[in-house]
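tokens incoming
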């Protein structure tokens, strides 16, 4: 069923958001088990890309990470993606009170999960870790993720588009703060000696 929703979000987002909302209303729990599958795409792709393909800085041999080090990073990456989706869902639920929208937490988590789908899918590009290519393909995926948030939130939360715009902007702002915090935490962990181990 989630594959149909994913296809629908790329072909007719407004109608698909309505279907997702109506399906979620008929259940008292979030149907986001697919997130555990999709979050594995960037984690596994990143593992393969950093251990088998590597990346180049200028001319020379590709830089690779040891399998053990890459495995640890892939697990942390996977868990961070899962926690990120559920945290954004919780924040959507929490911010709803400020916008006088009270919706069940499972519906908010479902919104966050489907909104993040383009970023999970484009994670396959991490198999080939070339910065310019990843940026070239990643930026449209990021833009479509933002579009899904702005188009889906008013439908899922059943509010007018004008209020939905402000609500979505608040969610996006909090999400960006969380991303910057995650990057800062990564730098801190690297400084404490938990950086990747490179092959010779």
């Amino acid at each position: 069923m989630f594959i149909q929703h994913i296809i629908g979000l790329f072909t007719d987002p407004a109608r698909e958001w309505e279907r997702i909302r109506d399906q979620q209303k008929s259940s008292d729990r979030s149907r986001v088990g697919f997130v555990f599958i999709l979050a594995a795409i960037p984690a596994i792709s990143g593992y393969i890309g950093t251990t088998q393909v590597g990346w180049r800085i200028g001319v020379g041999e590709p830089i690779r990470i040891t399998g053990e080090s890459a495995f640890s990073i892939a697990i942390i990456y996977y868990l961070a993606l899962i926690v990120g989706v559920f945290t954004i869902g919780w924040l959507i639920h929490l911010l709803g009170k400020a916008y006088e929208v009270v919706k069940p937490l499972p519906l908010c988590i479902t919104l966050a999960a489907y909104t993040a789908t383009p970023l999970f899918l484009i994670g396959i590009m991490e198999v080939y870790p070339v910065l310019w290519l990843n940026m070239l393909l990643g930026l449209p995926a990021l833009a479509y993720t933002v579009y899904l948030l702005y188009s889906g939130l008013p439908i899922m939360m059943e509010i007018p588009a004008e209020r939905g715009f402000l609500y979505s902007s608040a969610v996006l702002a909090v999400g960006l703060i969380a991303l910057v915090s995650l990057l800062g935490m990564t730098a801190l962990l690297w400084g404490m000696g938990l950086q990747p181990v490179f092959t010779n």
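note: The chain has a mean pLDDT of 88.
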